Amino acid sequence: MAxxxxxxxxxxxxxxxxxxxxxxxxVESYVGSPLPSDFKAFLDIYGTGVIAEELVVxxxxxxxxxxxxxxxxxxxxxxxxxxxxxxxxxxxxxxxGGLISWGYDxxxxxxxxxxxxxxxxxxxxVTMAHEEGCATFDGSFxxxxxxxxxxxxxxxxxxxxxxxxxSFESC
Length: 171
What we know:
Blueprint: H1 2-11, H2 25-31, H3 37-46, E1 49-51, E2 55-57, H4 66-83, E3 100-105, E4 110-114, E5 124-128, E6 134-137, H5 141-151, E7 153-155, E8 161-163, E9 168-170
Antiparallel strand pairs: 1-2, 1-9, 2-3, 3-4, 4-5, 5-6, 7-8
Helix pairs in contact: 1-5
């Protein structure tokens, strides 16, 4: 998991957590498949929190449990797709091949796994931009996080725009 090692270098190591592989059982039962291993490994290390002050991710036993959020997002987006199918090119879980929610960013975008391969470690990432249109990232979860941070920019107090500082804040 070279991507996970790169993220640890960028974000540093958080305080030790006491997560268990069993934490994922209910989520993976709901999804009907294992989730990508680097996604689970990242969340087992860092937990629920915010990456680079922008991207929010959820652990099954975090302050905002992943499974509760998945169910809510899948239902909401599936209902929106029924009303406006042209705006949503992909179905949402639990439909076969449906997108699987894993996080969002403060810009209003939702991030999903597209289960396009029997091997979850080969799934792609789909970002729904404000519920209109989508972008696909052909890489792992950790590769997506690194790319997300690399393209993210912030404005400082003086109005200068510069790259985001890699960080992780637990929630």
